[in-house]
Automatic annotation (TrEMBL):
It comes from the Bacteria. Residues 8-68 form the HTH asnC-type domain. Gene3D superfamilies: 3.30.70.920, Winged helix-like DNA-binding domain superfamily/Winged helix DNA-binding domain. It comes from Spirosoma aureum. The keyword Transcription regulation applies. This is Lrp/AsnC family transcriptional regulator. Keywords: DNA-binding, Transcription, Transcription regulation. One of its GO terms (biological process) is response to amino acid. Pfam families: AsnC_trans_reg, HTH_24.
Length: 156
């Protein structure tokens, strides 16, 4: 059963906020910041992980590790009945950092990170061969000013 934000209480959001600031924060530090016991902090965090609400990962700065070609790709699918197939195929590509079905002019929105512009061209050429991909439109990101997780305070 999938949980939604209404099943989370203020303490859950506080734990999540702590980890958004520092994903390596210890149970002791979380407990001290939130004025709860270490056991409570541990229990809450473990439940959040088990329910798939949070996963602890190392987030890298793409530019600092060598990704020099970062782009938004709009994908047009024809016929529309192939959208799910196309999305599944594109989602398997390691260059893809974001993929969503959209309304409006195009069908799928894809953000990709490639090492070089040549790698980006190769990626575009390869997804263009997927059955159902009618057209792509690529916008290069010259400079990323903000790359962040959602602000949990917006849910309050």
């Amino acid at each position: 059963m999938e949980k939604n934000h209404s099943t989370l209480d203020d303490l859950d959001f506080a734990v999540l906020s702590c980890l958004q600031k520092d994903g390596r924060m210890s149970f002791t530090e979380i407990a001290e910041q939130l004025n709860v016991s270490v056991g409570t902090a541990r229990t809450r965090l473990n439940r959040l992980i088990e329910e798939g609400i949070i996963s602890i990962v190392g987030r890298v700065n793409p530019d600092k590790v060598g990704f020099r070609a970062y782009a938004h790709v709009a994908v047009y699918v024809r016929p529309a009945t192939l959208k799910e197939h196309v999305a599944q195929e594109i989602s398997t590509r390691p260059e893809v950092s974001f993929l969503a079905s959209t309304s409006g002019d195009y069908d799928l929105e894809v953000d990709v990170m490639c090492q070089t512009n040549n790698d980006l061209v190769e990626f575009i050429n390869e997804i263009s061969t997927i059955e159902g991909v009618y057209q792509t439109k690529t916008t290069l990101y010259f400079k990323v000013y903000k790359y962040a997780q959602p602000d949990l305070n917006l849910l309050k």
